[in-house]
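Notebook, p. 212. Picked up where the previous page left off. The plan for this session was modest: take the two constructs that came back from the sequencing core last week, fold each one, and keep the raw output in the notebook itself so nobody has to go hunting through shared drives later. Recording the first one now, exactly as returned: residue sequence, then the structure token string.
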Amino acid sequence: MLENIANAIKDKDKSAVLLLLTCFTFVFIMPVFEFPSNIFSIILFSLILFLASYPISRKVMFIGFVAILIELATRATDLIYLHYLAELTTNLFIIFLVGSVVRHMMNQKNVTIYTLVNALNGYLLLGIMFMSLVAFCHLYLPGSFNASGKSDMELVYYTLITLTTAGYGDITPKLPLSQSLAMLIAVTGQFYVAVVVAILVGKYASKN
């Protein structure tokens, strides 16, 4: 089974499907269950970075591995500024991965099911990046959001709802920094959708 997974990862299209399944599990399934340890989320997050970076190059995969190690190391210390730096490094790396996914999608001549998979991967990666920032604000800036804090699902839900600009209003940002972050999430989500739709429509139109 492990050999089949390794062979699938070597194929960029198949690795995109594996990335989608992992992102889907991380975003929609993991937050529903309350585990005594966050080891499962760490493993899934590491696997997401691995699957997203492996098709690009091994050098990029190594950078992702280092980013994970730095973030884990800073969590074990009380040095808040190092944690800031680790969060910034990880999120900049995810932005790079989103750009790589979009670039790979643009390089595909025809619109296929894998093109749509890559588009969804980029969107979910954006959501994961913003989830990290929202969780960071909620943890280190008390009162950033009016969430109860009883479940991680609240912040996951808030981030994706804001990313889609649905904005139900049951969870809202309270501080200026969290309000600016909410605006950034909404604008980025709309910009990504507009760019992806333009790319897909352009490729489909040129094919016909």
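Okay, moving on. Second construct, recorded in the same format:
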Amino acid sequence: MVLLAVLALAGCGAPPELRNFAPTAPPHPTSVPTPAAPPATGLPSGAPTVPATPTTDAGLVATACRGGPTGSRIISLLRGRAGVLPNDVGVRVRSGPLCAADWQYTVLDVTGHEELQVVTRERSGTLELVTAGTDVCTAEVRVAGPIGLRGLACDGGTVGVPGA
């Protein structure tokens, strides 16, 4: 009801007694800030500007790792100091590692067991296990993980993967 009243009054304009009102004194001058001059580009002022090419934040999309850890390095981490996989279990990389910022997501086929999802993070050249299991959407992944990785770990594996 209030919205109808506001809309009805909005179209009316000023009341008749104020429409012909002329101020008796000229308005006081106000200072108007002048816009800052654009930085010098070396181009004539009439030259069109070309927008900068947008860069993709490495954390927004998970892509195949280039220069990041390999699947065998992730398996070695799980068999070694992480103690997740025993040495006598067969393991094969099903997908990944996929990188988003300094995080990685890998899915492994483990002989005689369900697939194993693995989230790792590389800090100062050291590969760290964040979590591994059948559901890796932990609080740490949801809060600290990059968007592209959260899509894989928490949203069924398609968010943030180009062409998925």
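Notes on construct two before I forget. The radius of gyration is 30 Å.
Flagging for discussion at group meeting.
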